[in-house]
Amino acid sequence: MDVTVIWAAIIALGLLLYVVLDGFDLGIGIVFPFFPDESERDLMMNTVAPVWDGNETWLVLGGAGLFAVFPAVYSIVLSGLYLPLIFMLACLIFRGVSFELRAKANRTRYLWDLAFIGGSAGAAFFQGIALGTYLQGIPVADGRFAGDAFGWLTPFSLLCGLGLVSTYALLGCCWLVAKTEGDLQRRLHGVVWPLTLALLGFVAVVSIWTPLQDPNIQQRWFGTGMFWKLSPVPILVVVCALLMRQAVRAGHHRTPFLLALGLVLLGYIGLLVSLWPYAIPQSLTLWQAAAPRASQIFTLVGAAIILPIILAYTALGYWVFRGKVRHGDAHHYH
After folding, report:
1. Is the Cβ–Cβ distance between 62 and 18 less than 8 Å?
2. Quick one: DSSP state of residue 228?
3. Are 30 and 165 in contact (CB under 8 A)?
4. In 154-307, at which residue ranges do the beta strands (DSSP E only) sit?
5. Percent of the chain, pLDDT > 90?
6. What is the pTM of this model?
7. Which end of the chain is less congested by CB atoms within 10 angstroms, N or C?
8. What angle do CA 37, 38, 40 make, to 5 degrees?
9. Residue 290 DSSP symbol
10. Can you tell me whether residue 183 is helix, strand or coil?
11. What would the pLDDT profile of 269-291 be if each residue is shown by its tens digit?
12. Based on C-alpha coordinates, what's the Rg of the chain?
């Protein structure tokens, strides 16, 4: 049994769940500027008020898992991405505080709206920058970070930042379509398709740029027959996009969110295939970066106990607060 691969799968799952769950509530902040009406904004925030806190559990799980099982990755990635990760955390703090305070503020409410919009968009942007920098490869020498403080500031990482902002905006918009009704839902439907097109544009550019800038990824995709094995992925992306167009036109409630999840999952699969078997692209494989086997097994026991609990309370939270959110419900959440 390869414990290293099991742990890589757990961390990959944690990151996917984070992108999906925290992605849509960050996305709500990103689409906030398109909906200036105060009562509509209250309603939009109330759709995630009961669950947004728990969504960030997965970020903590991913970080803790890296620290315990892939300490080399933890030290190199955090050194290389120190500034974007600090900016991301600052944005998440602003956003978290605005969640609590905007409901209670009167005169300063517009400032907390700005904090919510800036915090959500900023967190998404810096997560995308971190992803882009990681894909480009972080310079490593003797098992340590060997780059400079601003190595993350490249055209490719900035593009990935914008791409993730559009991904989260689409997730947020589709979530709101599922949770609202009437005129607000109709206008949200109008935003879904342009956001889908923006996301597809970013996915296309990143998919072309990634193998071009990295000969190893190019070799894996095109030199080993992997391209043909993965050919269903772009086909499925196109199918998802066409179904999204249809769902928006027909005014479906839940289908757009499920299709947005499908697009995210397909992109994530392509990403994992590009990275395998590296923990840090082109520098350290998973096995080179892993902690001793005894440590991995010890922490795996803890993960086997805690993961089902987190999954259960997350699922319960969404089940309890399922269904549409209406204006009259607002006072329950504050």
Report:
1. yes
2. H
3. yes
4. 278-280, 284-285
5. 73
6. 0.93
7. N
8. 70
9. P
10. helix
11. 988 988 888 999 888 999 999 99
12. 20
